[in-house]
Amino acid sequence: MSTPGETAGETVESAREMLPDNSFLIQYPHVSRVVRSLFLTAFVAFGIGAFMGVLQALHRTGIARIVESADYYTFLTLHGVLLAIVFTIFFLAGVFTWANTRSLDRPPVSKRFTWFWVVTMSAGTAMAGIAMLAGLLPSIDISADVLFTFYAPLQAHPIFYIGLAVFVIGTWLAGIDWFRQFLAWRREHPDERIPLQSFMVLTTMIMWFIATLGVAVEVVVFLIPWSLGIMPAPNPLLTRTLFWFFGHPIVYFWLMPAYLLWYTVLPKIAGGRLFSDPLARVVFVLFLLLSTPVGIHHQYLDPGIAEGFKFIAMTNTMFLLLPSLLTAFTVVASIEHGARQRGGTGYFGWLKALPWRDPAFTGMALAGLMFAAGGFSGMVNAGMNINYLVHNTLWVPGHFHLTVGTAVALSFMAGAYWLVPRITGRKLYSRPIGLFQVVLWFVGMVFMSAAMHRGGLAGIPRRTAEPQYPQVAFETVAGSVGSLRLQLAFGGVLLFVSALLFLMNVGLTAMNNKPARGLDSALPPALSGPEQSPTVLDNLKLWALIAVVLVILAYSLPLYSIVQGAGLYPAGQEASPAVIAPLLEVIA
Amino acid sequence: MHVHNYEKLWLGASLLLIVGFISTIVYGAAGAGITMVNDEGGQVNPKELGNTSGFDDPGVTKVGPNEYEVHIVALQFAFQPGTVELPANSTVTFYVTSRDVVHGFEVAGTNANTMVIPGEVSQITVEFDEPGEYGIVCHEYCGAGHHSMAAELIVREPSNFTMQDDTQTPTSGNETTNATATPTGGESA
C-alpha cells in the first residue's frame, strides 16, 4: 500500500483530500463509519474469544490449569459464542454493508435504520455476554454454562436466550436494510443484472432468513418461556433438531463473506480478474438451496430419528460439496489469471508471480488451502456410518478449526488488512507483521488441528476440561497421547500470539497518521461476465421458493415424528442446573 | 450459459467424487451392515426409570446363546453400571438413556458411539470379537463435572466369563448389527 512520494509530515486529514474521488471513504463516509463500528465489535470479541481459546488448549492438555475445571465450560461457552457468533457475524455485517453499498453504488436507504440494527445486534450481544460472564461469579445467581449449542434441559439464565433472540432480530433488520438498498437500486436500474457482490449478499441473507427460523422457534417458543418458569421443559430432541436446523446453515453464513472476498477481492489483489461471474452466481444459489435441508447430519447418532431421514440429510450434504469444489476451480483460475498478468509463466511457475508479500493475498490463499483440508475432514463427518468413529471426539473441533477457524477467520483477518485502510483512510501499520501473522496462524493451526484430528481417531472426546480418565487408555494410531497434547497446546499458543499480532496491527492502523494510498474502490470485471448467464439466476424469489420447498421436504416428516414420539413437553424433563418449578406445574 | 471446457471437466469430476462418497456410505450400510442409531429404542420417562423394565436394574442380561443386552443409565456425572463385563465373540445390544440432561456414550477407540437424550432410548448393537479392556466416556457436555463421567467395559475370554445375574429371559431377538467394535491398538490383554 506504500507508494513513492509519501512525505513524512502528511496527516490523514490533509491526505484525505488526496484520496481518489472513487475511494469508498470519500464516497460513503457514513457507511465507512458503520463498517468501522461493526469491525470494532468483531475484533473485541475476537480478542476475548482467542484468549479463552488458549486457556482451553493449555487446560485440557494438562499443561497449565489456571482456572477450575468446573469453570472451563464457562470459558468454552464464551469461546464458542464470541468467536462463532459475535466475531463472525459482526464482521459479516461490516463486509456486507461495504459490499452492498460498493456494488450498488448507493448508500443504505436510511441512516437511522442502519444504526438501529447495529444497536439491536450489539444489545443482544451484551445481554448474552453478561449472562455468560456472570457464570464466573458465584455471588451472582446468573449463568449460561450451556456452550454454543445450549441443548435443553441444560438451562441458561433467561437473559442469555433473550439476548440471542434480540441479536438474531438485529441480523434480520440488517438483511432488510440490504434488501431495501437493493430495491432502491432496482427502481433506478430496472433491466440491469444484480451486481455480483450485492447478489452474494442477498442470496446469503435469504438463506439466513430461512435458517434462523429454526433457532427463533426454539428460543422464542420453547426456551425463553421455559427459562422464565412459565412453561415446562420442552422435548430435548425437538429443541436439538430446531437448533441444527439453524446450526448447519450458520456454517455457510460464516463462510459466505469469506467466499465474497475470495471471489471479488482476491482476484483484484492477485492482479487479475474473476474467471467466471455466472459460476459465482450458481455457487451462491446452490448454497441458498442446500445449506438448510442438511442439519440432521449433526444428529446421525441421535436416537428417535429414523435412519431414512439421516440418509436424506447425508445425500444433500454430499452435494453441498459441489459449490465448494466449483469455488476451488474459479478462485484458483482467477488467481492464475492474475499471476499471468503479472508475468508468471509455466504450468506451476506462475505461482511465483503472485504477491506473496501482501498479507491480504497470502492470508486468503492459505485460508483457501486449509479449507480444502477441512472440506475433506468434513466429508468423514458427513459419511454417516464412518462418523461413528469420530462423532463428538476431538476430530470434530479439529475439523471446524480448519473451516471456521481458518478458512473463515484467516480470510477475515486478511480481508481486514485490505479493507480497514479503505474505511479509515489510514495506511496499514505494518505489512511484514501482517504477513508474519497470517503465516503464523496457518502454522499454529497445522499443529493444533492435526493433533485434534489424531486425538479424535483415538477416541478422545471434545468439550471436556480433563480428557484424562482412570478407566480409559486412549490408543493413538501413531505417536503418544502425550505428544499429541504438546502439539495441540503448542499450536494453540501460536494461534493466540498470531491473534494478538493481528489485533495490534489493526489497532495501530486505526491510529496510524500515515494516509493510505491507491484506494481505488473499483473491482475489475469478470473474464466471463454476467451477460453470459441466464437471467433466471437473478430471480431471487424463485430460488427462495425452491429453498423453502426443500426445507419443508427435508424437515416436515422428522419434526412430525419427533413430536409424535415424546410430545412437545414430555413428562419427567427437568432443568439443570435446578431452578424454580415451572409455573404451570405449581398451579396444577 | 457459457461454461469453459476445463470448468465442465472439473464439474464432471466433482460430481463423480460426490457420487463416489455416497457409494461408500451405501456400501457401509448395505455391504458391511452398519445401521444407524434410529427410533427403535422408543421413549421413556426419565424420572420413572426405576419403574421401567431394563433400566430399573441396569446391567448385562443374557438373551441368547451368544447374545446379550446391556441397559445403561447415564446421569450427572456417571454411568450405571460403572463396570460392564461381557464375553468375547458375542453380539451385544446396548440400551442407553439419560436420567437428566443430554449425555454421550462412546466406547473409546471403537465405533460403538451414540448420543444419549433424556426421554429417548438409544439402541445400538455391536459385536465384540476380541477380549480387551475399553473405556466408556461421556462425549457430550453435561455440566460442571462432565470430565469425570466415564465407565469401563471388560471383554473376557468366553471361558473366563460368568454372568453375575443370570436371568435367562430372552426378550426380543436381535435383528441388526449396526456397528463392529474392534480394538484400535494392541490393548487386548
Automatic annotation (TrEMBL), chain B:
<dbReference type="GO" id="GO:0005507">
    <property type="term" value="F:copper ion binding"/>
</dbReference>
<dbReference type="InterPro" id="IPR008972">
    <property type="entry name" value="Cupredoxin"/>
</dbReference>
<dbReference type="InterPro" id="IPR034214">
    <property type="entry name" value="Ba3_CcO_II_C"/>
</dbReference>
<keyword id="KW-0186">Copper</keyword>
<dbReference type="InterPro" id="IPR051403">
    <property type="entry name" value="NosZ/Cyto_c_oxidase_sub2"/>
</dbReference>
<feature type="region of interest" description="Disordered">
    <location>
        <begin position="162"/>
        <end position="189"/>
    </location>
</feature>
<keyword id="KW-0479">Metal-binding</keyword>
<dbReference type="GO" id="GO:0016020">
    <property type="term" value="C:membrane"/>
</dbReference>
<dbReference type="InterPro" id="IPR001505">
    <property type="entry name" value="Copper_CuA"/>
</dbReference>
<dbReference type="InterPro" id="IPR002429">
    <property type="entry name" value="CcO_II-like_C"/>
</dbReference>
<dbReference type="Pfam" id="PF00116">
    <property type="entry name" value="COX2"/>
</dbReference>
<dbReference type="GO" id="GO:0004129">
    <property type="term" value="F:cytochrome-c oxidase activity"/>
</dbReference>
<feature type="domain" description="Cytochrome oxidase subunit II copper A binding">
    <location>
        <begin position="65"/>
        <end position="167"/>
    </location>
</feature>
<protein>
    <submittedName>
        <fullName>Cytochrome C oxidase subunit II</fullName>
    </submittedName>
</protein>
